[in-house]
Amino acid sequence: MGFKIVHSAINYSDAMAATKSAGNCMGQSCQWAIQLIKGEMQSLMQPCFSAGAALQREYDSAWENLNFFQDGDVIFFRRQAKKVSSSGIKSDIVTRSGASVSLVNSLPSFSGNAAVVIGWRCQDTPSCFSKFGITLSHSGHAVALLRLKNNGVVYLYDPNCGIYEWIPSPGVSLKSDLKQYMLAKEYGVHVRMDGAMMLSTHEDIPANREHVYI
To answer: What does the pLDDT read at residue 67?
Structure first.
């Protein structure tokens, strides 16, 4: 079934224009995941834009003087995990595509509250080489997933669009539906997970209450 919109993003483009930012998807996705798992947001809503923009600046700095696409994501994820580490919050960071897929597909059966931030590599134009072989045009995007322990529902946060509820279909994995979502939004002609961070807690958080929408 895929994803059903439950809360549309508001004024994201306006905020981007006002701050003259080329992109804030990683910062906003991490801010959403962190605020929910730490219990700093009462319901499923957009994170504070300025706080997400500050995280994006940290992310951008992690990319300076790096030659490999994936390294900036990993360094940034480790910084954020260190910030939120506590007795009640656990972090797991994976650095390869296959491991990222496994982490995402483990989310629906996770027993507690868990948020996953995913860094995607997106190939913008078709190539005569392999999907992610030699190509001169590629970009990235980041989204976040959340599973709430009280109802087992999985939500997707895409900073460009808003918050969605995952409607699973028999035999279709979360990763498969998420990839189809990315392709349908035309983030690239080919997309691949390149790294992921899971933040989890078995403690109650405010979003565990019955009504989680704003």
So the answer is: 47
Q: How far apart are CA 146 and CA 139, in angstroms?
A: 24
Task: Write the DSSP string, 8-32.
Answer: E--SHHHHHHHTT-S--HHHHHHHH
pTM of the model: 0.87
Quick check: 147 pLDDT over 50? yes
User: Within its chain, how far is the Cα of 102 from the centroid?
Assistant: 15
Q: How many CB atoms lie within 10 A of CB 214?
A: 12
Q: C-alpha angle with apex 144: 12 to 212, nearest 5 degrees?
A: 80
Q: How many CB atoms lie within 10 A of CB 45?
A: 19
Q: Which amino acid is located at 134 in the chain?
A: I
Helices 69-84 and 25-37: angle between axes, nearest 10 degrees: 30
Q: Please name the residues in contact with 170: beta carbons below 8 A apart, sequence gap of 6 or more.
A: none
Query: What are the strands, taking DSSP E only, across the chain?
Result: 2-8, 90-94, 113-123, 138-147, 154-158, 162-167, 190-201
Closest by Cα among 59, 35, 1 to 146 = 35
CA distance 47 to 69: 26
Q: Which of 201, 213, 208 shows the shortest CA–CA distance to 38?
A: 201
Mean pLDDT of 139-161: 92
* Beta carbons of 99 and 107 less than 8 angstroms apart: no
Three-class SS of residue 160?
Answer: coil
